[in-house]
Amino acid sequence: MSETSIDMAKAGGLPSEDVSQRQAAVGDFIALLKPRVMSLVVFTGFAGLLVAPGSLHPVLAAVAVLCIAVGAGAAGAINMWYDRDIDAVMKRTQGRPIPQGLVAPDDALAFGITLSIFAVMLMGLAVNWAAAALLAIANLFYVFVYTIWLKRRTPQNIVIGGAAGAFPPMIGWAAVTGSVSLESIVLFSLIFMWTPPHFWALSLYRAGDYQKAGIPMLPVVAGAAATKRQMLLYTVLLLPLSILPTLLGTAGYLYGAVAAVMGLGFVGLCLRVLREEGERAPKQMFAYSILYLFVLFALLIVDSANSNWLNW
Questions:
Q1: Which residues does UniProt call coiled coil (predicted)?
Q2: Residue-wise DSSP of 224-291
Q3: pTM tops 0.70, yes or no
Q4: What residues contact 165, with CB distance under 8 A and at least 6 apart?
């Protein structure tokens, strides 16, 4: 392990006597990819690929999903490199590989850049360059716009920066069609509008962590009441938007019905957050938001599978 890693360990990571004998393991580099975040990115990208009109050879489809996964993970690794100072301060992120001294910062940066270039080039050469361009834009947006520019400067960081996490279904769609359409933009918008209430619910009960790290999340800058009102606005706007895939023919009526019911549940839970004090309601809303997005995109996949079976 590098001298930098050992110094970081002495400053608050692993005990130096352990780190001096510790080589970075494969698991440490996998942790840099933010596997939990990557899984949601892959899932929504896979949904976009399946619901897109047309077909893609199964091998190329697998390559496209792999590129989305690797690209997202690469952006996560670069994010961890840049945010290593605040990750060491925040309780939620102190266990990450760089603050713990398990991976040297330079190694994490090189790892992220290499994987990002690999993912984009493989997508372009094996699938198509439209999907590759969208993947490159998503990575650049996450690193330069969100991580470097917005995150430490504005309470609207997650609103604008959330666009990076909304690209995967559009990338999956472009992998099949070679283009961007209204339907894929709607899938993008669905995640884009979902992101602020999702992350603000988390930041409501982690506000102290963000304040300690100097990150101007909305609850830190504007207070809990203003954050809750903003969350309600986004969940209300998300409700009709979530039904659009049915109206556009991208999804069936089952999806539309479930999206409406779950959207009303999302709004209802947000109203509860607005009325109540404490951490319980925001924690429940954060958990529900993950379930909400998973169910909606799972239904898109199910609808697509049923349509393909009927056509066959």
A1: none
A2: HHHHHHHHHHHHHHHHHHHHHHHHTTSS-HHHHHHHHHHHHHHHHHHHHHHH--SSHHHHHHHHHHHH
A3: yes
A4: 37, 41, 142, 191, 195
CB 120 within 8 A of CB 71: yes
Q: Output the CA–CA distances (angstroms, integers) from residue 246 to 180, 284, 299, in the order listed.
A: 18, 28, 11
Please identify which residue in the block is written with the tokens 């390559």: 63
What is the reported pLDDT for 24? 74
Q: What is the pLDDT of residues 24-42, one digit of tens each?
A: 788 999 999 999 888 999 9
Q: CA-based diameter of the chain, in Å? A: 63
Report how far residue 175's alpha carbon sits from residue 134's, in angstroms, rounded to the nearest whole number: 10
Give the relative orientation of helices 129-140 and 58-82 as an angle to the nearest 10 degrees. 20
The structure tokens listed for 50 are: 């399946």
Cβ atoms of 224 and 237 within 8 Å: the answer is no
pLDDT at 13: 43
pLDDT of residue 25: 87
pLDDT < 50 regions, the chain:
1-21, 309-312
- All structural domains of the chain, each given as residue ranges with its CATH number in brackets, are 26-180 (1.10.357.140), 181-312 (1.20.120)
